[in-house]
Design goal:
The complex is a heterodimer. Helix content of chain A is about 45%, strand content about 10%. By secondary structure, chain A is of the alpha+beta class. Classes of the chains: A alpha+beta, B alpha+beta.
């Protein structure tokens, strides 16, 4: 509350409020007040941004994909450029937030935890699927191009429709189904530390959708389960707490026409996974399990 | 309009657990969340879940530790219910497939944690919250429970009887983020608020951007008192640029804090001559800020946390995750250089006043998880007690709302529990602006019929949305920034009377400015500008409640530090602070702490 600009702002507002207190045409007055304050605010905000850009030791330029089906001028996809002041540790998400809060409040993207665990902000940054919050601006070549995840319908700007991804996740029965549970009071199922270690990486999935977006097969076959869903099946199939009967059911699901055999081991999912899950390896291992189990039943 | 028996608002840990419990009780339950369930901030919890599972441990010990940790501001019926239910909840999670870390014999591991007399913290690596969240969402999918995703609840449909305790909640109004439609959701039996914490009130927080405290604000304006809001936990080691948490484990392994002059200030400046870096969270946070305020901070902002001397091998073995966090979120290589850290808002001990069955004083309205104040954590929460809280009280709220036969709650709620009136002790205005201001001020006694209450609420919110979309106005982000700045400057770790008053004045000014906000994005499609604008309204009310409580309580208890009142005043302050919206003219009052249930808890000095 101590900068010169903000003091001017307050004075202007007080004056405007006095105006609004007049009983006559109050709503009209209110409206004028709002418009006036809004213009002053917007000016101040942009001036502040320009000043920060001027004063910054370093700035970065981002080119952001824009699209809104119902807004004139945005219904044809385009790229907007924003110049933002750089600071050490700045992530792609930070740059987007700065651009939104200082230049254009309609700039739209999903984000929440800012620490790579909620999986909201998988984006296509300089031609690769990455989490915005986990990608350092310093590591990228400028201008940094930020687009929505490829192979998914764009809802608006950087927001894509995740429904298909969620449907694929649900199709593998993504919940624990033990053959039976211990009967003693407050008795847990036993799991060896080795088995826990075996499923560990697969349980780290944050449902961000980067893998699915990077996969050529998924792009061509809409029914392909995709790396994330197959990994979810792996997480349960390899968990020794589920029994053999359940494991057979799981293998049947992933062995279907649009299941594991579609994978051509291109490793693109593994490369883009922000949680370093060895997705391709998990898919390969399920293929081997499926073969073994089929041989057993011959 | 949608219609269900039970509606759960928010789909983090507490909401998911509540929905499962209501479903098991046979109710038609649905969840309404502004995110997708797996995006909820429960997923960011690292530490673990406390439960007395070991034969040598007991619920009595867990209850005692929790009460001591609360600095004797927890209510005994809540604390005991919690400690008694936690073990069953943990085993239940295990039966749902939670990938707990294991012992060699295959049993669930338990480790020691701060303030606990027995190693009772179960965990799944350093990602316990992530696994808990996903495990419970899996159960929701398995049961086919309806989830309305990306629907932001804007308000509650509550009758406006003059007496708050006569009011009833009949549903919620939500905004469909993808389509821009405002719709009513009718709840025949109950609405459970499980919307998480209010970290966005501060500009430096470990909380998610979505944690705008919507549940607190909606319940408050509907008439439910907010309880003990002044108790906010600040974590001493968060990254300066993002607020990402650096676990206490770094100091546990031997990490050292240095100021700009490379002094080990915890010892050299006498903040904690015995425990040093391992003193309790509030002590270390206060020490760091003192260094910065006295000019010994780095870039006048933070201090250094150095772990290089531990050696690469040990760091990779035990703290690998920390290296990733520092690298990804601060661009710092912890093997090569010290990590910058400063205190950050972490957890809200206070919240929506409710009893051990999750019931608020409004019939049909419940609260659970961080949003609720049962009161379990009192003035300070112990590490590892937040996750079991959302399991225990999420389940209880869900069951009760669905009509389960449960023991009547002992904790008294609502204005009838008032023991004495309170006073801010300063000439500052809080609450709604003068009449004519565009704020929801209920209670003219007109709307009491369920269908009518909901349709009126829908109309009110549709109008609000239209106004925000159509009018020109200022950008809410500016108002939010002002709130966050003043809260961080004045209602942080250190609290002085004049600063608290200044904060209330700033909040008042922000409230006036908020009258002129609008969304500049005119779109009905995924309009986050509009949504954040509406969240900012909630942030204003919560900031005010926190600050008012902090001003009223002139003692030093748990996380609440007051200059010139440097001792815990049991004679005058063994009581809960309550702030009731009172239709726009907030009333501050108190109710006594309950220190006796099955056991009696005699206040003792809290030293570790």
């Amino acid at each position: 509350m101590s900068t010169q600009i903000e003091q001017e702002q307050t004075e202007e507002q007080t004056e405007a409020e006095a105006e609004a207190a007049e009983p006559a045409e109050q709503s009209h007055q209110d409206r004028r007040l709002s418009e006036k304050t809004a213009r002053a605010e917007a000016r101040e905000r942009e001036e502040q941004a320009r000043e920060e850009v001027r004063d910054a030791d370093d700035t970065v330029r981002i080119k952001v994909f824009r699209y809104d089906p119902e807004v004139e001028g945005k219904s044809e996809p385009r790229f907007d450029d924003f110049q933002v002041p750089f600071f050490k540790g700045m992530t792609v998400l930070d740059a987007l937030i700065y651009a939104r809060d200082h230049y254009d409040s309609s700039l739209t993207f999903r984000h929440s935890c800012r620490q790579a665990v909620c999986g909201s902000d998988a984006l296509f940054v300089n031609g690769q699927q990455r989490l915005g919050c986990k990608t350092q601006m310093a590591d990228l070549e400028g201008p940094v191009r930020i687009e929505p995840l490829p192979h998914q319908d764009v809802v608006k700007d950087l927001v894509v429709d995740m429904e298909h991804f969620y449907e694929q996740m649900k199709s593998v029965e993504p919940y624990f189904q033990p053959d039976d549970l211990p009967e003693g009071e407050r008795e847990e199922q036993r799991q060896s530390p080795e088995n826990r270690e075996k499923v560990k990486m697969s349980t780290r999935c944050i449902w961000c959708g980067a893998c699915m977006s990077s996969c050529n097969i998924a792009a061509g076959d809409n029914e392909y389960l995709g790396p994330a869903a197959i990994n979810k099946a792996y997480r349960f199939a390899m968990d020794e707490r589920e029994g053999e009967i359940q494991k057979q059911d799981r293998l049947e699901i992933i062995e279907q026409e649009h299941g594991v055999w579609r994978c051509q081991t291109q490793f693109s999912c593994t490369e883009v996974c922000p949680k370093d899950i060895p997705l391709t390896e998990h898919i390969q291992e399920l293929k081997r399990e499926a073969v073994k189990s089929n041989l057993k039943f011959w | 309009m949608h219609e269900h028996d039970v509606l759960v608002v928010g789909a983090g840990g507490a909401g998911l657990r509540a929905a499962i419990a209501a479903h098991e009780e046979g109710a038609d339950v649905a969840m309404v969340t502004k995110l997708h369930p797996v995006r909820s901030h429960t997923g960011a919890a690292e530490g673990g879940i406390n439960a007395a599972l070991h034969p040598e441990d007991s619920w009595e010990l867990h209850a005692y530790d929790t009460m001591k940790g609360s600095d004797y501001l927890g209510d005994a019926p809540a604390v005991e219910t919690f400690a008694q239910d936690a073990p069953d909840e943990v085993i239940q999670l295990e039966h749902w497939g939670m990938p707990f870390s294991r012992e060699e014999d295959g049993t669930v591991s338990q480790r020691p944690f701060g303030g606990l007399s027995h190693p009772r913290t179960t965990y799944a690596g350093a990602e316990t919250g992530h696994h808990l969240l996903h495990t419970m969402y899996e159960q929701v999918v398995k049961r086919g429970i309806t989830v309305y995703e990306e629907q932001q609840v804007l308000d509650l449909a509550v009758t406006d009887h003059d007496d708050v305790e006569d009011r009833e909640c009949h549903g919620v109004v939500a905004y469909d983020i993808a389509s821009g439609q405002v719709e009513g959701f009718s709840a025949r039996d109950g609405v459970i608020l499980a919307t998480g914490g209010p970290g966005q009130v501060f500009d430096h927080t470990t909380n998610a951007v979505a944690n705008s405290g919507d549940g607190y604000a909606m319940a408050y304006r509907a008439g439910v008192p907010l309880e003990d809001m002044e108790f906010v936990q600040f974590h001493p080691t968060t990254l300066p640029s993002t607020g990402v948490l650096i676990s206490e484990g770094v100091r546990g392994e031997g990490g050292i804090l240095y100021n700009e002059d490379e002094e080990r200030f915890m010892f050299e400046h006498g903040y904690a001559n015995n425990e040093g870096e391992l003193a309790s969270r509030d002590v270390v946070s206060r020490a760091e800020l003192t260094e910065v305020n006295e000019g010994r901070g780095i870039e006048d902002e933070y201090v250094h946390l150095d772990m290089r001397h531990l050696g690469e091998e040990r760091i990779l073995d035990r703290l690998e995750n920390i290296l990733h966090l520092a690298e990804d979120f601060e661009g710092v290589d912890g093997l090569d250089e010290p990590m910058p850290v400063k205190p950050g808002q972490h957890y809200q001990m206070g919240g929506v006043e409710c009893n051990e069955n999750g019931q608020t004083c409004i019939d049909g309205l419940y609260a659970a998880g961080e949003t609720a104040c049962v009161s379990l954590h009192g003035a300070n929460r112990l590490g590892g007690n937040a996750l079991p809280e959302l399991l225990v009280f999420g389940a209880r709220a869900g069951s009760h709302a669905a009509g389960a036969d449960m023991k009547e709650a002992e904790i008294q709620t609502g204005p009838s529990a008032k023991s004495e009136g309170g006073d801010l002790g300063a000439d500052v205005e809080i609450g709604a602006l003068e009449a004519g201001a565009d704020e929801t001020v209920a209670a003219d006694g007109a709307a009491v019929e369920p269908g009518q209450v909901l349709s009126q609420a829908v109309e009110r919110e549709r109008e609000r949305v239209e106004t925000l979309l159509e009018e020109d106005g200022i950008n809410h982000a500016h108002v939010r920034d002002d709130i966050q700045e003043t809260m961080t400057e004045n209602v942080n770790v250190f609290r002085r009377e004049e600063n608290l008053i200044e904060a209330l004045e700033d909040i008042r000014e922000a409230r006036e400015r908020y009258q002129h906000v609008s969304a500049s994005d005119p779109s009905r499609t995924y309009n986050t500008d509009l949504l954040h604008t509406m969240e900012t309204r909630n942030i204003i009310d919560i900031a005010e409640a926190i600050t008012a409580g902090a001003l009223a309580r002139d003692e030093f208890r748990g996380a609440h530090w007051r200059e010139q009142h440097q001792y815990r005043d049991d004679e005058n302050w063994l009581k809960h602070t309550l702030l009731a919206w009172n239709d726009g003219s907030p009333e501050l009052y108190y109710k006594p702490v309950e220190l006796e249930a099955e056991k009696e808890y005699e206040p003792k000095e809290r030293s570790y």
